[in-house]
Amino acid sequence: MTQETLQQQQQQQVLTVRGVNLTVEGGRQILHNVHLTAKSGSMLAVMGPSGSGKTSLMNLICGRRPPSSTMDGEILLNNRKVTSRMRKSFGYVTQEDVFFSQLTLKQTLWFFSQVKLPSSMTAKDKEKRVNEVVELLQLTKCLDTKIGGMSDQGLSGGEKKRANIACELLRNPKVLLLDEPTSGLDSSLALKLMEILGRWVVEQSSIVVTSIHQPSSQTFHEFHELLLLADGQIAYSGRRELMVEYFEGIGVPFHKHWNAADFMLEVVKESSQHKAHILENGRQFAERAKQEQQQLASASASQVHLNLSYQADAGSRQNGLAGLDEGSVRIRFTSPDFSPQAAAAKLQDDSEGVHLVHEVSWWTQFLALSYRGFLVSREAILSVQVLVQTAFVAFIVSVLWFQVAKTENNIADFISAIFFLTSYVTFAPFFEAIMTFYADLAIVRHERKSGMYRIGAYYLAKMVVEIPLLLVVPIFIIAPAYWCVGFADFGAFAAFLVVITLNSLASQGIGIVFSLLSTNPRTNMTFAFIYMIFCFLTGGFFTKSIPFWFDWAKYLSYIRYCYHFGLIIILERTDDFRCGEPSLYAVCNRNSTAGNSTAPLTIPGSVILELQPDTILPVWANIIVTVCMFFAFRLLGYVILRFCRKV
Ligand SMILES: Nc1ncnc2c1ncn2[C@@H]1O[C@H](COP(=O)(O)OP(=O)(O)OP(=O)(O)O)[C@@H](O)[C@H]1O
């Protein structure tokens, strides 16, 4: 055997699905004894009518099983059970194109290149790889186009599909699975896409398995192997060009004027008289396939042994380093006492020794997620709509409370201005977080299914980049409103601004926790709304006669702490209020009845504070509670995300 032949054999990858059964919750069996063998350099099409189990099979190969389902059978790569670690090196293009719609294609591909390509690659090499893939998939002209979504126009359906494939091709996966990559494309685009993949699979010696619904005749001819499913069972499995012969062989005649792909689908439709007969033959085929695969498995095991012996003999042993390159499977033996037998055993048993995954450091993930998070959050938190709304609120507050005269009559107005600003600034990020975080999670969940990054890196990046963005709205409202109302001096302004922005950040953290309460966004919104109303009503702003047994509830109102801080800091540093005539304040009446004409007829802020119906906690206590809320809710959000939602 020449070294070249040997290397080819070593590079040959074989993906095997052996006797797979899948039963979902309720006992319904979706897949029955399915077998599949796909080899590198070839494209295998999984076909079948709608509901025949194509997506379920692709999902299983990628380790995505429906919750509460049971599966038996085996999924192997080069005769070794595919582990979750090995799956990370697979590429999977799902039916849905799940992207952040606000990013351009270039930004999206940059992000994927950072989290999918190994940290050891230089930035230049990553950029080069992105350009190669962009060129391959003919996406150059739309690099600066936004991905787009339901409401904002961006990439076309075909471009989005190719973008989805581009993200997976970046690292040249040895196994690429595509679920209906041609859905929504016209037949010429579908053909073009399959031709591109056809060239790629040969060049890279990869395995492509793609489910496809109703390919045109030309697209159908791009595939080397076919697996036809009907009701989750095999109806045909084998070379594409042998399909017609097979069906004719089992007595199902092919009409010459038919497109072969249509014929295949037609013969297994519900109404077909041939269906039972075809499935019976399919079952026999499955049994034969099982035996053949088992024979192949034992043959390959001895081949592995042979390859190792060969490499060891070839001289590597002397320098204490022998490398077996079996496609992307690379094992390093650093001991001078290298033994091929031990190595073969290791290959069979220990997937930990196999470096199938490009490791990307936590730090690289964090940086890439931070930059993407910044781009995405900037659009959400500082959108034109938000800025217009902020400008409007700042304007209306400034006009309505403009330089409120410091008289007894205006004390309620003065306090209500503090209350309004506090509640508005904390209210907005709370609901904003609920609406946007849930939408983000759908994308994060999708990306994390292929193990792209760690949840901790995502969460911390989100927190870090959003904090500066979240400061903008409070500053743009408080800065003009504070001086227009004429609250107090600069010291009070600075302190109020710091605590109100801290409270607004805490409020976003609470919003994040609410967005994670359940998997139903509507339920989360209902809980959030209930809590917000609870905060307003129990905070002591509207009713002063809370029953004594319910008095504790006011401490759960997170708005209360910032509001009380504002009251103390502003009222203690503002000018005194002129007494009304008659006055409700004892301090005014005492001065006038004493006939002390030199005594000022004013009410100091401290007196107003003392007369507040609610217990006012000291400044330090309000600050401590606000700071604790800031950290506690963010931590709670992480714990729920990591351990309860398991995103
Ligand atoms: N988690 C699940 N619980 C219950 N039934 C399921 C589940 N997942 C899939 N099914 C059912 O299994 C069958 C196969 O579904 P699957 O999505 O794999 O079909 P498909 O061949 O990909 O269909 P299509 O071509 O329409 O995408 C369908 O009847 C579907 O309703």
UniProtKB/TrEMBL annotation:
Transmembrane portions of the chain: 380-402, 414-438, 459-483, 495-517, 529-550, 619-641
Domain ABC transporter: 15-256
Keywords noted in UniProt: ATP-binding, Membrane, Nucleotide-binding, Transmembrane, Transmembrane helix, Transport
Membrane topology term: Multi-pass membrane protein
Localization per Swiss-Prot or TrEMBL: Membrane
Superkingdom in the source lineage: Eukaryota
SUPFAM superfamilies: P-loop containing nucleoside triphosphate hydrolases
Record keyword Protease present: no
SMART domains, per the entry: AAA
Molecular-function GO terms, alphabetical: ABC-type transporter activity; ATP binding; ATP hydrolysis activity
Organism annotation: Macrostomum lignano
Any one cellular-component term (Gene Ontology): plasma membrane
Name used for this protein in its record: ABC transporter domain-containing protein
Annotated family: Belongs to the ABC transporter superfamily. ABCG family. Eye pigment precursor importer (TC 3.A.1.204) subfamily.
A Pfam family hit: ABC_tran
